[in-house]
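Record passed on here:
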Amino acid sequence: MSIQLECKNVSLGYEGSIVTENINFTVNEGDYLYIVGENGSGKSTLIKALLGLKSQISGEINMYGGLERRDIGYLPQQTMVQKDFPASVREIVQSGCINRVGFRPFFNRDEKELIDNMMKRLEIDSLAQRCYRELSGGQQQRVLLARALCSAKKMLLLDEPVTGLDPKATNEMYELIASLNKKEKITIIMVSHDINAAVKYAAHILHIGSTQLFFGEKKDYLKSPIGKSFIDIQTE
């Protein structure tokens, strides 16, 4: 498989203060990478750097194989303001096509078909005219995932996608994401505190922190001192 994304000696932080440094990893086409680590270790900051929403302090972030940032779908952590957003489901999903529309004042046939297909794919087509803020947490996350998929041509970045969901909705979301990876070959990069899900779904794991770093296959992470220590803490 060909490399899509590479980070070389990347350091991240705020206002010149380094949070984590010397991050090195690669992501191959069709990969499923979990990013784990302690609170405040820079996981969400790394996602924003990959998207070009925040600059790294140093190091390189390179994309290959024709991957561009506009090909990447993004599902951020939800805020309380977003949960109360007064728009219809269809309006939110179709906003994921904005990068495709460019300067046109309308959605073309292909974009409308994509919107319809994504809503059907995530089983929210019956909710198209419902107000987003009236939906359950699980339904809202499906809407936001459909929106991200309207942007994603090659890669999907997810930041704590199951936060606040009940166990049933959490499992459904994880299975949806796994299906997108396996059946539609979309590369997945996910930030999560859920080490059990990482063990079940990940192909590779990136563990970042102020002093300890790991990148490699899941099986090697589970055998590593940093992996064993983190799993023990999460399962106590």
